[in-house]
């Protein structure tokens, strides 16, 4: 064989290897509705980096911010059907797709951040994430977004301050029922429309974690943030069951590891992020931060726990397990 033939053979071999590498490399699309500077986006980018490292570039994640591929609910429907590989939702919206998520949305089900972390990092959390497999998606990680509180054009120091008030809620039966029990008028509004709804007085009050004041700039159009901390509703990174079943066993192991590491990475940084948001809102945006006596809120919403437990034995058992985890 001549040198020319050897060179040609080597070049052909290199091209074949390159093509094979391209064929073997896969990028999964992950859609969510937060901006790129939001902690959840940063943590999902970290998850993608770790997945690429663990699979030597064989499996990758491209994260789309600002609902580029659809709203939060639209994303879940696309994931269920296998059209979209991955999405970030939260437990409030996911209860419409998998009932067990409703337990995590119960107000004051978690006694503390430590109690919450114990649940999501243990067997209970994994059982919830896996429960939806036959519904078209599997949960991979919980990304805490801390405690949610009321904010708006007034201080909410007791349930009486919500009497007859339009309160923006997520499209979640739990969120709607909670506001009803507190005396408010629950008003589902899409996240992307909430800034203008607060600005124009369509709703007087909303509820979320402190980063809503800064990342979503709601601190520009509200005057008070009241720390009643009624729920801890985490984001959830999910993957289509159809996509998951198409991964090799090694890829599934790598995905689980990347998700677990992203969950830990996110939890470590969240509290600092939330405290910084409160300071910025107070010092730079003029938002008044109100300490609140929680007992009246707890008493008002406790019927929700029994109402949900009465719906099924599975829900009642999960409530008991979460309560026991606080001991």
Automatic annotation (TrEMBL):
Matching InterPro entries, A to Z?
Answer: DctP_fam, TRAP_DctP, TRAP_DctP_sf
Checking Gene3D superfamilies in the record gives: Bacterial extracellular solute-binding protein, family 7 (3.40.190.170)
Q: Which UniProt keywords apply?
A: Signal
Key word Iron present in the record? no
Q: Report the GO terms under cellular component.
A: outer membrane-bounded periplasmic space
Pfam families the UniProt entry points to: DctP
**One GO biological process term:** transmembrane transport
Q: Does the keyword DNA repair apply?
A: no
Residues of the signal sequence? Answer: 1-25
For this protein, what is any one GO molecular function term?
A: carbohydrate binding
Where is the chain membrane-spanning? none
- State the name under which the record lists this protein: TRAP transporter substrate-binding protein
Q: Whose protein is this, by species?
A: Natronospirillum operosum
């Amino acid at each position: 064989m001549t040198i020319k033939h050897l060179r040609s053979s080597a070049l052909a071999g290199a091209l074949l290897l390159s093509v094979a590498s391209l064929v073997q490399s896969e990028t999964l699309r992950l859609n969510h509705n937060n901006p790129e500077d939001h902690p959840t986006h940063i943590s999902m980018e970290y998850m993608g980096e770790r997945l690429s490292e663990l699979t030597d570039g064989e499996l990758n994640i491209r994260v789309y911010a600002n609902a580029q591929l659809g709203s939060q609910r639209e994303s879940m429907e696309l994931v269920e059907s296998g059209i979209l590989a991955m999405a970030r939702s939260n437990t409030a919206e996911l209860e419409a797709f998998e009932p067990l998520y409703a337990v995590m949305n119960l107000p004051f089900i978690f006694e503390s951040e430590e109690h919450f972390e114990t649940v999501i990092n243990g067997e209970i959390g994994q059982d919830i994430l896996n429960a939806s497999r036959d519904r078209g998606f599997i949960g991979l990680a919980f990304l805490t977004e801390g405690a949610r509180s009321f904010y708006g054009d007034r201080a909410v120091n007791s349930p009486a301050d919500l009497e007859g008030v339009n309160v923006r809620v997520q499209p979640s039966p739990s969120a709607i029922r909670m506001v009803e029990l507190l005396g408010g008028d629950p008003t589902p509004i899409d996240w992307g429309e909430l800034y203008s709804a607060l600005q124009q007085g369509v709703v007087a009050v909303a509820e979320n974690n402190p980063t809503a004041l800064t990342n979503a700039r709601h601190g520009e159009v509200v005057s008070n943030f009241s720390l009643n901390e009624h729920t801890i509703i985490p984001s959830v990174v999910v993957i289509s069951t159809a996509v998951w079943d198409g991964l090799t066993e090694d890829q599934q192991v790598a995905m689980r590891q990347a998700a677990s590491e992203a969950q830990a990475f996110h939890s470590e940084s969240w509290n600092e992020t939330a405290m910084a948001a409160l300071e910025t809102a107070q010092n730079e945006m003029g938002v008044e931060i109100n300490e609140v006596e929680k007992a009246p809120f707890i008493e008002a919403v406790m019927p929700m726990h029994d109402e949900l437990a009465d719906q099924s034995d599975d829900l009642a058992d999960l409530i008991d397990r979460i309560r026991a985890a606080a001991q």
